Amino acid sequence: MAEVPESEYGIEIKGLSKVFGANPEAMVPFVEQGMTKAEMNEQHGHVLGLRDINISMPAGRIQVIMGLSGSGKSTLIRHINRLIDPTIGQVLVGGEDVVKMDQTALRAFRRHKTAMVFQKFALLPHRTVLENTVYGLQVQGVPREQQVEAAMRWIERVGLAGYETNYPNQLSGGMQQRVGLARALTNDAPILLMDEAFSALDPLIRTDMQTVLLDIQSEIRKTIVFITHDLDEALRLGDRIAILRDGEIVQQGTSQDIVLRPADDYVESFVREVNRGRVIQVDAVMTPLNGGVAPSAATVPSGTTVEDAIGAIVAGPDDVVTVTNAHGAPVGAITLRQLAKALIPSREPADH
Length: 352
Description:
Elements: E1 11-20, H1 28-32, H2 37-44, E2 47-57, E3 62-66, H3 73-80, E4 88-93, E5 96-97, H4 103-112, E6 114-118, H5 129-133, H6 135-140, H7 144-157, H8 173-186, E7 191-195, H9 203-220, E8 223-228, H10 231-237, E9 240-245, E10 248-253, H11 255-260, H12 265-271, H13 276-279, E11 287-288, E12 299-301, H14 306-315, E13 320-324, E14 330-335, H15 336-342
Parallel strand pairs: 3-8, 3-9, 6-7, 7-8, 12-13
Antiparallel strand pairs: 1-2, 1-4, 4-5, 9-10, 11-14, 13-14
Helix pairs in contact: 7-8, 14-15
């Protein structure tokens, strides 16, 4: 495939639908006419996995795909490296349609441009931590010295230095998942596909792995597609979030979009129990400085959560705090009343 700079490996999914059954192509007209998943199964014995998926995933960002079991999220991620072929639609990676690749190009794409981290770790039990981590580079034919050098760097980075000669059955679940992450990173692919990668972990270990991923992502800026059924995880990790239901996207946007403006009752049921103070940022609810609110002595940087902004007001002399940009210049102000209002769920409709 044509060489594309790693910084340009964004993903565009256009008009993608997937039907499972004996004659999926014959079902396309019914998909386009809006036949439901239940109707297609009852009337034609086919299963509608995905319907008309359109998502733009910018390079170097984390795109979260979330939904309940059976929503189609794992089916969707498997289209990106074409473990599943779509019935109709395009999967553009770096401007090239993966669906149209021949087997040679597809094999090279999978080996060099994508890496995958699975929920069940998928480690080879007869290989040590080091040998599991070098596996992708070994398949690529990279010289042994380079394999080991790259693997050791990522083994240390994920916190497993000293465990290189251990086998998977000698490691905890969280440590095994760190090996899986190190293996994917050692492959040095621009796209990282993570399918429920942390779902099998205990809550504290899961949070720790999220922190590891965010820390590493701040350095390497991969294009990451992360599948989860957990909204708290989605809100913490995702630069953008797409929510699926019965194979269709019901809402996509930033964490602020999802929490402040849920598209329907289904999305609202997800966000109802979210700690809004730790998710919503002052940028989403502040008044611009030209909007009539005078700046104050107390300041918080852009991106500060509502919870932290309340703390800044409580510690200051006024009931208002100024929001500053990356250069320290004031861009807005927000009152205690506005912050408190942001904590109360609203049924303001989302933009579509």
